[in-house]
Amino acid sequence: MRLLLFATLLMFAACNQKKNQDKQSAPTDYSASSEVQQQIKVEDIAIHINYLASDEMKGRDTGSPEIERAAAYISTHFSENGVQPYFSSYYDTLQNYDGLAYNVVGLVPSQNKESNEFILIGAHYDHIGVMKPLENSTDSIGNGANDNATGTTVVMELARYFGANPPQERSLIFALFSAEEKGLRGSKHLAQKLKSEDMNLPLMLNFEMMGIPMNHDDYSTYVTGYNKSNLAELVNEVAQKPLAGFLETAESFNLFRRSDNAPFYDEFGIPAHTFSSFDFTNFDFYHKAGDEPSLMNPEFMTEMTNEFIPVIESFANRSELAVKMN
β-strands 171-177, 244-245: how paired? Predict the structure, then answer.
């Protein structure tokens, strides 16, 4: 999420650091069933996070050689798993950024050739590069594991699944945005571009900071802009469990406006929401050099990714979408 939150989050981090370090060192067992393991595997989740958030990627700053490597990694993953380029290539060059930067955009067409509806599933793959080291540390790389190699990984693995299991009614766009940390520029660019094409886009789902379980027993993730649509209600109905809930802190900090869902809400006037498990108490290294892959919980991420598969299948396959603005 964007730098605007940084000062506020410092207060939460100071209060919760020791407790959460202990919690992160002994993650809950979120191992999926053998049936689910055939869909999304823990080892694949771990491979993506460890690559995207490695020291060699130097924090994936927009415009850097390292984020170009990340884009190539994502586009290769798409190509190898039945996800077509949405445009003439996977790269969507930003027109609102000084320098070279691009979103990576893939497509899984629906089996209904007469359908012209799309659902967009997104996450930002950039981070903020090199930064001030933590106290008593020389490590200055902002690895950006939770923010947002985790969301990127979720989208990549969802794309893998749907590349092999195309939807019946609505085509799926998988978009990894650049320059989120520069003011949502990647998502703003793509939303405006798709709107100019008169795309029929009734729904956008975004994933942000999905690497660690919440300190909430009532639900597994929260959805930003909870009261703007009936999305959370339908998600939980399909999942048959409280998969998406309301987080008061997210509402008070207006996180709905601070991630890549917002430009699609603005341009299309549709339900466009972000799912996250970062609850302001379970992770102390937001926009710090300590946002390392070793602190992530691949088992939890695997479980969450698999939980969202039937949700997205339901939205992509049902005759009536049923997701509506409140």
Answer: unpaired
In order of 98, 187, 198, 208, 266, the CA distances from 192 in angstroms are 18, 8, 10, 21, 9
Instruction: Please check whether residue 109 is in contact with residue 166, taking contact to mean a CB–CB distance below 8 angstroms.
Output: yes
Bridge-based pairing of strands 117-124 and 200-207 is parallel
Paired with 120 in beta bridges are 173, 204
The answer to whether 217 and 133 are in contact (CB under 8 A) is: no
pTM here is 0.90
**1 pLDDT band (50/70/90 cuts)?**
low
Give the whole-angstrom CA distance, residue 276 versus residue 286: 13
What are 74-121's pLDDT values in tens digits?
999 999 999 999 999 999 999 999 999 999 999 999 999 999 999 999
Q: Residues 229-286: pLDDT tens digits?
A: 999 999 999 999 999 999 999 999 999 999 999 999 999 999 999 999 999 999 999 9
In the chain, which ranges are continuous DSSP H helix?
A: 6-25, 34-37, 42-52, 65-80, 150-164, 185-196, 231-239, 248-252, 262-268, 298-317
| Pairing between β-strand 84-85 and β-strand 117-124 as defined by DSSP bridges | unpaired
Domain assignments of the chain as residue spans, ordered by start: 3-317
Extract the tokens encoding 12. Answer: 């939460």
Sequence length of the chain is 326
Regarding predicted confidence, which is higher, 161 or 3?
A: 161
Mean pLDDT for the chain?
Answer: 90
- Torsion angle of C-alpha atoms 302, 303, 308, 313, degrees rounded to 10: 80
Estimate to the nearest angstrom the gap between the alpha carbon of 307 and the chain centroid.
Answer: 14
CATH architecture of the domain formed by 3-317: 3-Layer(aba) Sandwich (3.40)
Q: How is residue 77 written in tokens?
A: 């993953």
Q: How many CB atoms lie within 10 A of CB 215?
A: 15
CA angle 169, 124, 204 (to 5 degrees): 30
| Residue among 66, 72, 54 nearest 126 (CA) | 66
Q: Name the β-bridge partners of 244.
A: 221
